[in-house]
Amino acid sequence: MGRLEGKRALMTGAGGLLGSDLCRAFAAEGAHLVLTTRTAAKLAPLVAEIEAMGRRAAAVAADMTVPADLDRLAESAWDALGGIDVVLISAQPPQPGLGTLLECPEDNFTEQMQAMVWGPLHLMRALAPRMAAAGGGSVITVVSSTGFDPFPGYGAYGIAKGALWTLTRYMAAEWGKFGIRANAFSPGLVATTGDVEGHTAMLKSSGMLARTALGRVGTNDECIGAALYFASDESRFTSGQKIFVDGGRY
Question: What's residue 125's pLDDT?
């Protein structure tokens, strides 16, 4: 049996490369999945791939910045799997949130916060009472080192990721009594788009690679272990914590 055998997981951000890799890993470990991104049709090949593993899978289109979409997502996901044990929050807005505090357009700050903080909060306010009534579960957020260690030019993104970590801690503190755990993992210096060569060149030029103990860029598959740990019963006494997957950044 896999580490997630029989667990039912809602995976946001499933249309991204890291999100889709996490979906495959969860399914390989035995989980049934509801996948979500802005366009459900984009997820059809991934749904078919997961079903071919013998798992149940469904795709639901939802925009993390639209409350009505999130209400529908919570309802649809719960009905599709007969409950939710794990929620993975990795969705990000289309805009990267780059630019200095003085240069970045103000609406970019708003979009980052809506997609990565207010959207997840709205979704979890819809799901948490149901999860609590069913005995609890695990919430996993994907945060970023830019939320704890400012990197000039990433302000809008980093501020939102920092707020997402704070939200994670609050979920852990307030919902632990209901059996709901909330944890985060933080990919750092990971080529989440798959472009290891380009990411390496960028990090070398910025000096960041020189501040990494392992001296190289990470890949998506190296983030999977942290997510599986938090989703599994192995972490049943772990909440309000984060794991840095960053090659030993210092």
Answer: 98
